[in-house]
Structure formats: structure tokens, C-alpha cells
Amino acid sequence: MKKEIEIVLEKLEGFENPKLFLEQYVTPSNLAAFIVTNAKLFGDLETVVDLGCGTGILAIASAILGAFAIGVDVDIEALRIARRNAKKLGVEVEFVACDVKNFEVKKKCTVIMNPPFGIQKRHADRAFLEKAFEIAEKIYTIHSAGSEEFVKRTAEKNGFLVTHVWKFLIPLRKTYSFHEKPFEEIAVEVFRIERKNSVSWR
């Protein structure tokens, strides 16, 4: 299942005009496929919200596996591409143009996101985590290597628990003019986080 989804996701368009101040990078298709297939196995794919969805890969991948998916982003250009991507694959995703701080959802949901790493703006990922803790029962989130202590501490403060940590080396495509190589491998950590009253160790 993972490989099939990865192949499908490879067909999606990336950013036409990536914005450095938003730290816009395309989530690699193999990483997106890994996250959503694991979320499916854990039973976490009913209603999914992708905070900072960019061109939509995580929301679309969730929808492929049957989730009611919502993608949220402040960048209208990126959302235009995301809608095109969803249409290309024939899946329904609700895309919402707003700052993640202002987003509200009434249903219980799982947040699956690749927030800014905070390289351009320190602690940029915090607003995304705070919103995820506010609206979600389960969270899958991607962070730069070395974030484990911070994510665990922040989760604990908000009544959540990190149940799984996966470590990856992912290929980052040349996105900005200062990138010298076509691809650069970077180390990331993916966290699965649950609200404490619903923790299940599977």
C-alpha cells in the first residue's frame, strides 16, 4: 500500500513560487506515504487536518486512504496548486485559506502536518503545535532532527504523550537560489502524539 501511494504522490505539482519566509518545501512522497499508511494502521484517518498544507500532499494522501481531509494554509498560490493536485487525483479535500492560528474545526480530528522548522523565524513551529494541541486527538508532525526533547516536553505540558518517534534522512529538492545541490539529505523526526485520555500503544 505504501509504495502504491508513494508512486501516485510523485505525480503532484510542487510550489511554483516557494516563499522562504514561510519555509515552503515539498514533503517527499515516500515520507508522506509512510505517515498516512501508519496513521491508517493506527485507525487515525477519519477526519484529518493538515496545518500549513502547502501544495496539499499530506491532505491528499490522507484522502486517498479514505479520510475526510482539510488542508489549511495562508498562501493562496499554494492552495491553488493544492486544489489542482486533488482534482488531478480525483480526491475531495477541503482547502481553507487562513492563518493556522485562526482555524477552527468542530469534529474530533487527527492533525498530520509538516510545520516550518523555525530556521527563518525562530519557534515558527510552535504556533502549529499549539493549534494541533487545541483541535486534535492524535497528531503526526515532522520536525528537524534533535527536536525530540522539545516535542515531548511541549506535548506533556498540553496533556499529550508522544507514543512513537521515527527518524529519517529525506531528500530535500533544490528549492531556493542559495541551494547549491539538486538534492540535499536532511535528518528529520516524525512524531505520533496522542491526547492522554485516549492513548493506545499499538
TrEMBL record:
Sorted UniProt keywords: Methyltransferase, Transferase
Gene Ontology MF term list: methyltransferase activity
SUPFAM superfamilies: S-adenosyl-L-methionine-dependent methyltransferases
Domain Methyltransferase small per the UniProt entry, residue ranges: 46-133
InterPro entries: rRNA_MeTrfase/Polyamine_Synth (IPR051720), SAM-dependent_MTases_sf (IPR029063), Small_mtfrase_dom (IPR007848)
Keyword Thylakoid tagged: no
GO process annotations (BP): methylation
Protein name: Methyltransferase domain-containing protein
Native organism: Archaeoglobus fulgidus
